[in-house]
Design a protein that fits this description.
3-stranded mixed sheet; 20 strands; 10 helices; globular; 4-stranded mixed sheet; alpha/beta; L-arginine/glycine Amidinotransferase, Chain A
Length: 348
Amino acid sequence: MPAEWEPHEATWLGWPQNSTDWPGKMSTIAWVYGEMVRKIATGEKVRIFVDSPAVEKRARRVLETARADLSQVEFFRHPTDRGWTRDSGPIFVGRTAGNRRRLAIVHFHFNGWARYDNWRHDRRVPEHASRALELPLFDAQIDGRKFVLEGGGIDVNGRGTLLTTEECYLDPQTQVRNPGLDRAGYERALCDYLGVKNVLWLGHGIAGDDTHGHVDDLCRFVNPRTVALIQCRDSQDENYRALAENRERLQDMRLEDGSRIEVVPLPTPAPLYWRNVRLPASYANFYIANAAVLVPTFNDPADREALGILAELFPDRPVVGIHAVDLVLGFGTLHCLTQQQPAGKPAA
């Protein structure tokens, strides 16, 4: 699986259609998508799943008004349950053949994070993408069973190392994706289907994450040797202890070549709530596109600090803040909504 900062052919999105994700906010969320597409389309194709001609028509109207480059946008008709394409969309892997990278898609059998019932349309999204792009589709299985994994639950450096969390995949009671599968089984499947050889396990994710510990709200590779790790300065915050423990774990971890990982701390915004429910507001949920790094912002004093840190980590492309206070009401932001399709260009 190539790293996210490697060249893309396209970014995949699912147009927002499920009003239960953002109650009373659907028109606002559509405009957030418009801004995302406007920024991404300057450097790559944007491929969007829509349920119907009517949804496509609404999406085109929003994107046109947002001044997105519609010549870079392609629509694909396929029903979806939710819009979280990072988790249900096609996960691409590549293999070098001669001087070119050949792509394939891995089907990881999304099941609604072992939490929600509306996932059956989403589970078939990789199949549709495989047919539309005429790419091979690998059926992920382990010990004769379908293997469930979400894109937001992993992060790779493109050199053989993968980050994930014990909370998400090894908890034996809460949101169990693959009942009975132990650490060794997960590592075997990850190595088989994503081509990694080094799996690093952090502990807990952040409070408010309804996926139960996705790593893309917590810790992200920004280059082959460096991660950006969310840290909390308020010792009274419920995230404080878990985030400090993850920092300690990373100090003892090694990359695929045995070298240490450079850890750059990212701040956390002040806690955000919807009624009495904490929301997973995190600057780690940024998305690395060809032409920009899109970073969720939360009308918080820490926004500026986070953008500055990430700008230093990505000197080769602009770092752009996208207002995400409304977006995070759906329990996810920019990275959760996107899925990169690597370029099948000549291999370096």
